[in-house]
Amino acid sequence: MDNVTVAIKTKKPYPVKIGIDMLNKCGELISAEIKPCRAAVISDENVMRLYGQPVRESLEEAGYRVSSFAFPAGEKSKTPQTLFKMLDFLAENGFDRSDAVVALGGGVTGDLAGLAAALYMRGINFVQIPTSLLAMVDSSVGGKTAVNLEQGKNLAGVFKQPELVLCDVKALKSLSDGEFSCGMAEIIKYAVICDEELFDFLCGIDGRKALSQEALIKIITRCIEIKGGIVERDEFESGERRLLNFGHTIGHAIEKCCGYSISHGQAVGIGMTIMTDISEKLGFCRNGEKERLIKTLRNFDLPFETRLSADVLCDAVMSDKKRSGDKIVLVLPRQIGDCVCRSFCISEAEGLIRMGLEGCR
Description:
Largest sheet: 7 strands, mixed
Helix content: 40-55%
CATH architecture of the largest domain: Up-down Bundle
CATH superfamily of the largest domain: Dehydroquinate synthase-like - alpha domain
Number of domains: 2
CATH class of the largest domain: Mainly Alpha
Low-confidence stretches: none
Number of strands: 12
Radius of gyration: 20 Å
Oligomer: single chain
Structural class: alpha/beta
Strand content: 15-25%
């Protein structure tokens, strides 16, 4: 199957390329967007061991002068401390505004490297090379970058659109089943918010083993098309883009309450189930959609229940950055493929979350 390009038409447009063997050709592909310069390859230690060398060699072959920065893998590295180490690294190696940061890895890497690229000298070139399924379909596109604070997830960040995104589906072979499932949670999210045909396909297959590289390219492309379209219409999340938070407000709270011992995808799976349960109980969503969602989550070994107490979960939800004064926006499905955003006062939202939590135990 030929490589596919999706054009993201934000204020600063950029291409997202999806295909096979892009890691070995990244220098050539990046040079079409950014002329050879100094390039900082930023990755976690695990991904750097897997792909750092071929990426470095490809960049150097294309004329880039490469420096590498690796940090300990995992959500616990997504901190201001790690961010400032990256900024010091860029300064110590003499990077300037004409140079580039290349994020190689999953969502944590993309968020950290993107924020560093946005802050260093008030902004330098930025390229995303996602190696996880979650990063390919979601976090590498749209320009959100952030670090976590003790009070919650992604509380310090900016919008920083990349110059280019390269999605090499071949890299997904190195993912564990758990990491792969984490990305599938985001794909299921896209299907629930606006593509029932994609959802029906996912509901009817037997997990990861049923997905060929060609099928993955098509699925990733479709998710990027969905996100790209929403981001183009609402780049800075003032309206429609909030749909992309389906399952995430509660999911982020679950991650925080569990000390990030549960993966983002697992938390989002539970969050989506709770929100669908709430919508059904309100009579806003047609009956049976929660069971369809649970079946699809099960196909990819994703959880849909939590034992967290309502008090603990509600406290964490109310510290979410999406809260505005005494209001918080929740994303509710009307049916698979059709979700809407609704604003609730805090006391009402707490009651709804308690109600939904009872249906997901």
